[in-house]
Amino acid sequence: MLEGKIKDVFSEMIVLKDPKRTEFFSNLSLPSYLRDWLVMKFSDASGVIDYDSVLRYIKQYIPGREDFEHYKYLMVNGETIRFLARIRVMVDIKDGKTVFELPDFGGTRTGAGGIVDSDVADKWQDVLLRESENWGIVELIWTKDFSTKQAKGIIKLIDYNPFCPYTIDLDYYREARKEFTIQEWIDVLISAVDYNPAGYVDDITGEISELKKMCFLKRLLPFVENRINLIELAPKGTGKSYIYEKISKRGWLVSGGTVSRATLVYDNAKKTSGLLARFDFVGFDESQSIRFEQPSQIQAALKHYMEFGEIKGFDAQMAATAGIIVLGNIDAERFDVNKNMVAEINPIFQESATLDRFHGFIPGWEIPRLNQDLIANGWAINTEYFAEVLHALRDELIYSAIVDQCIHVPRKADKRDLTAIKRICTAFVKLLFPHATSKEDITKEDFLKYCLEPAKEMRQIIRTQLCIVDPKEYNVPGKQEIPDIQYADEH
């Protein structure tokens, strides 16, 4: 039984998931990566959870945004406050101070920020300053800043402990993968992100569908590979938002509202980087409803970033690795890759030059609408641990080398098509065959079925949409089809 094998192989990294527990934590508005940590912290060996202890811990250490004004009142009146929060730390070059802000409480514009004690900065500099954002237990006080003439009041971070409940050992994870067949491993991955693999059934035969499972796993590609840009169109209720918003603390989902160039790319006034430099991926949920300020400027910045991985300000330039994910809803009558489907996404992404920089398309109508049968029910890998493994795999270079060994590229292959197919293919290898260290570790049949062919299909949809959107440029001989990349057989 698969559950038993998961318990044996991942004995220290598992959690009991069930629909009732999922509903309990959903009502608390907690993301999966915090939920599974709390479950492990307050569960016994059989998976029974002490809900009262969970609620007490949340009340004490995980405040909501509405609590921060009260926290400020307590600090001003001499109390020390300690809680779990997302924190962003920067060095202010002008005055030489190390400063912080708490984005989930509004950051510096709401007073949720201040200075970092020098001892704390020295102790945790490798953690706080190497990552764009971190999670940890912060300890705050209110004090006077006597370095200024007015000696204004300021919040000070006097202690910090990183929220890092798991040691990520990729060798352990790779060895664990060897214990499962590819079919079992697909189910392991699905259950790790809170879904029940048995719920993916074919609409006609009623049998479990590997095709639907694989389509769902395409959503995890940006978690595991740098700078993968994807478009997904799907009916409402298929769980698009959940995957990109709740599974990993390293992704960011923009849902409605207004987006500026400063927010997304670089703030020239504050000289701070935007979302693209701070996260593994940035998603745009229901992108049609999002308003972009000065869209032509943002579009130009996005095209440059998507092509070269560079973020530019007036006087700054830096590399970033975030993927860009565009999500949209689509009606059933428009489920046709041979018709204009990108009309369903925000106009800023519809121009052919921008569209060509997307590596692949996810046909989300092949993913079942979320129902009770799709909610994970049983022992599975802890979501926070799993998300951190995927993050660690992003910088592993051996997998792209394996892909290079496995493919034969025809002469004069289009550069963007080749980049897209190789990048998606590499992500599939990381996701499905993390134990592989050479071409010989993946059979030809498995590489074609689970890596190369899905990557080609995802890119071909983009190519087909380009022909529809800009027929003069793309619907011409030589540009209608992707390169015929094949498996590199030994001769």
What does this structure look like?
By secondary structure, this protein is of the alpha/beta class. The chain is built from 20 helices and 20 strands. Strands 2-3-4-6-5 form a five-stranded mixed beta barrel. A five-stranded parallel β-sheet has the order 8-12-16-7-17. Strands 1-18 form a two-stranded antiparallel ribbon. β14 and β15 (317-319) form a beta hairpin. The model has no long low-confidence stretch (mean pLDDT 91).
Average predicted confidence as pLDDT: 91
Strand coverage percent:
15-25%
Q: What best-fitting shape do the alpha-carbon axes yield?
A: globular
**Major sheet summary line:** 5 strands, mixed, barrel
Q: Which structural class is indicated by helix and strand composition?
A: alpha/beta
Number of domains: 4
**Poorly predicted ranges:** none
Rounded Rg: 24 Å
The fold-level CATH name of the largest domain is Rossmann fold
Give, in spatial order, the strands making up the sheet with the most strands: 2-3-4-6-5
User: Count of DSSP helices?
Assistant: 20
Distance between the termini: 41 Å
Summarize the structure.
By secondary structure, the chain is an alpha/beta fold. 39% of the residues lie in helices and 19% in strands.
Notable characteristics:
single chain; 491 residues; alpha/beta; OB fold (Dihydrolipoamide Acetyltransferase, E2P); Rossmann fold; five-stranded mixed barrel; five-stranded parallel beta sheet
